[in-house]
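Side project, low priority. Logging it here so it doesn't get lost.
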Amino acid sequence: MIDDDRSYSDAELSTLDLAAVFDGGIVGEDGKMRPELQGIGSVAAAIQLDNQFVTSGQVADAASFKPDGFVPPALDNVLKIGLAASHDDTDRGVFSQWLGMVAAQLVLRERNRT
């Protein structure tokens, strides 16, 4: 599915099936975040959320799993996918870290536009 030896365009990542990336779970056998999530998965999520006008602040707020106020549908979908792939508190903690990575990438995208 994901080839770590090639670069992906924003257009390709905007259509990456995040649910399929999360099918392998949140953490690998080593107990760490799976590389597909940490790399291409987080960039794809940032691009997809950015394309739906979700802000870095909204994603950072959602990382607490107690978002304050409106949760955009695109972000709600990502939360549902990630939480469904989480089997325990450790997975949820790593998923929260992943959301933080996505928020940081959104900050970079937001600053690049200005």
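Brief comment: The chain has a mean pLDDT of 92.
Revisit when time allows.
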